[in-house]
């Protein structure tokens, strides 16, 4: 039931006078099934079904509405969450198959569970395995979305030995209450530990803001 796992996010760009609306489709537990091929077939079938649905709208002779006014069901991009510390063969296989159907952006979550050195090493390790998965039956690299270097620089993603992918992110539902109570209020998510604070929007801590 994909609709039960779908969230809608929208915001207004007052400068360009545009309202952006995105649907975020979550797919929790895709690796819980021992038969990963079944999960892969469900995911790729959903993507292709949306493409076919849109093609049917484009080709319909009875269409009365302008397509710019019709909700586009297609999947534009897949943000693939990778756990920290370990790159699983299951994740590589799923990413390989998804990358054949939709632009894929790998994202390492919970980056604050790694030290600075561990994070740098793991970023390079993930990038290497994306280029050469070394899995049975898979000889090609995983097709991930390639950002232009100047695009990454404009987004504040710089000084990485290996250009993104993947993004390393810190995320949190907790916010800095002092900043939020200021005038104007500032939304600043963070994770507090006895030894310090990991700030989701601090570019030295996380790629979240750039992503």
UniProtKB/TrEMBL annotation:
GO terms for molecular function: GTP binding. Residues 1-211 form the Septin-type G domain. It comes from the Eukaryota. PROSITE patterns: G_SEPTIN (PS51719). Pfam families: Septin. This is Septin-type G domain-containing protein. It comes from Haematococcus lacustris. The lineage of its organism: Eukaryota, Viridiplantae, Chlorophyta, core chlorophytes, Chlorophyceae.
């Amino acid at each position: 039931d994909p609709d039960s796992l779908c969230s809608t996010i929208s915001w207004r760009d007052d400068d360009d006078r545009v309202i952006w609306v995105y649907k975020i489709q979550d797919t929790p537990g895709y690796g819980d099934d021992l038969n990963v091929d079944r999960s892969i077939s469900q995911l790729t079938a959903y993507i292709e079904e949306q493409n076919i649905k849109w093609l049917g709208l484009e080709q319909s002779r009875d269409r009365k509405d302008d397509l710019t006014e019709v909700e586009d069901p297609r999947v534009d991009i897949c943000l693939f969450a990778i756990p920290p510390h370990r790159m699983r063969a299951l994740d590589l296989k799923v990413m390989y198959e998804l990358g054949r159907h939709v632009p894929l952006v790998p994202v390492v979550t919970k980056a604050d569970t790694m030290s600075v050195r561990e994070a740098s090493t793991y970023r390079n390790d993930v990038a290497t395995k994306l280029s050469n998965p070394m899995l049975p039956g898979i000889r090609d690299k995983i097709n991930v979305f390639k950002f232009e270097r100047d695009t990454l620089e404009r987004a504040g993603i710089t000084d990485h030995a290996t250009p993104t992918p993947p993004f390393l992110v810190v995320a949190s539902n907790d916010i800095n209450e002092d900043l939020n109570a200021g005038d104007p209020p500032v939304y600043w998510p963070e994770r507090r530990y006895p030894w310090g604070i990991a700030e989701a929007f601090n570019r030295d801590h996380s790629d979240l803001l750039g992503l």
